[in-house]
Amino acid sequence: MIDFRSDTVTQPTEGMRAAMAVAPVGDDVFGDDPTVNALEAKTAALLGKESAVFVPSGTQSNLIALMAHCQRGDEYIVGQLAHTYKYEAGGAAVLGSIQPQPIDMEPDGSLSLERVASVIKPDDSHFARTRLLCLENTHNGKVVPLEYLKAAGAFVDDRGLALHLDGARIWNAAVAMGVPPAAVAEPFDTVSVCLSKGLGAPVGSVLVGSTSLITEARRWRKMLGGGMRQAGIIAAGGIYALDHHIDRLADDHANAELLAKLLGNVAGVTVKGQNTNMVFVDFGVTDYPTFAATLRDQGIVALTGRSSSRLVTHLGVTSADVEHFVDVVSGMDVTS
Ligand SMILES: *Cc1c(COP(=O)(O)O)cnc(C)c1O
Description:
Helix content is 42%, strand content 18%. The chain is α/β, with parallel strands linked by helices.
């Protein structure tokens, strides 16, 4: 199967499985797992932060970050379409007693700092205490540029807020900009990164930040049930991914570009955009269930629907797969 649904569908490579099989492990809740400790140290260093904590998912990583920054009755400012706000089941409000203040996002995935300023609450007992600004990079594959991130850093310093990055795909942003991941992370107090997306590890995210914030986040991780025991088995997959799968994200970006270019030549198909490893397409199809079933018969899975389909490239998709997919689509009368 060629799977364009998400970069979360990757399978661990043989090298990664071998590294996982021989990883030394211990009880990580006691701090005894040497592989988890090595992954945390390595991720913190890569992102230029003091400390790190390994967690089962990006959702938990963002949640423990928000809970480390904000107390009950505090507020965080976030984009309407941000993962932390829209796609994490409202965890900050439900489990953290943190009020989200969502605002409209700019087309480039950033938040207008003027708009952010307009929703910061004065120190008054009527209002929640505005504590944190949360950004996302990449957002829908869009790289939020360094200049903006620096401006956001200066802005929060000026306003006495903290700054968190949902950097599930920070690696794609860094590779696309040709800068080290630490440059993307620099303005932020905490950064959450995923190992289980384009990097191809089977499980896991890491939260990085100052030692005091990470100590606090570690306590929330335990409370939320994220304290894992011999987690070095999965952490080894993460270490392997950091060592071998960051630079190759450039291949995924090139394959997405190829996909956008080739689909652009197919009659009836409209390519709406391509950002890093994601392509947004209107296939101009009237019967999507039949379209999806026909693709499946040809060994292709994709999330297709109405006016916008998202196709994602990753380490399980080659340029030959991209060409095969476009051949299949070209051979179907998609608009009929
Ligand atoms: C995938 C993702 C996460 C975390 O997702 P999990 O499935 O919980 O690991 C967070 N933010 C963004 C932007 C994501 O794409």
